[in-house]
Structure prediction request, 196 residues.
Amino acid sequence: MPDMTELEVFDKFAQIIAKSLRIDAAQVTPDTHLTDLGAESLDLIEITMETETQFHIFLPDKSILETAVEVFGPDVLEKDGYLTEAGKRLMLCRMPEADAPAFQGQVAVKDLQHYFLKVSTWVRLIQGLAQYTPDACAACGGPMVASMGFRMKCAKCGQEITLRSGEELNREWVREYYDREYRPQAEAPVSAVAVQ
Ligand SMILES: [Zn+2]
Prediction:
């Protein structure tokens, strides 16, 4: 559903949360955190699965930071439990302007677990992934319906597609960021010396 607005995603996601936690959907606001609404590990698994089913998306298992740490290697983005300056730059590049205060000063990595459980963070993640789930079949224009696993099938001609996984998309974004933003900066002092 590539055309869903942020509000549409939020409304639908709020219903999923409310049903799973047996609370009123009105209690769910963009600034609330799933854990503050009473979600525990099993609830988070249920919410994840229900979100994937209803939005036809494949959510990542890891946060963008965890994936980035795998790509960058140890002690570059986080060191001794805190984000480094490079880590903050990456998060600021990825997250909306409004969330910038969350990445200022000393930022403990464990506090970011809370940030990643914010409803608006999920809504953005869902909306971003939904871009990759087509409404219509590329071959015949027929309606796409959910198929087995993370696949969609055209109801008219039967053509199947596999959904892009959130983790794969996150990894692509991180690699691109690494090549475009991080590596040129990290190599800058070395090339300056080489020129002299
Ligand atoms: Zn088709």
Remarks:
- The beta strands are 78-79, 82-83, 144-146, 151-154, 160-162.
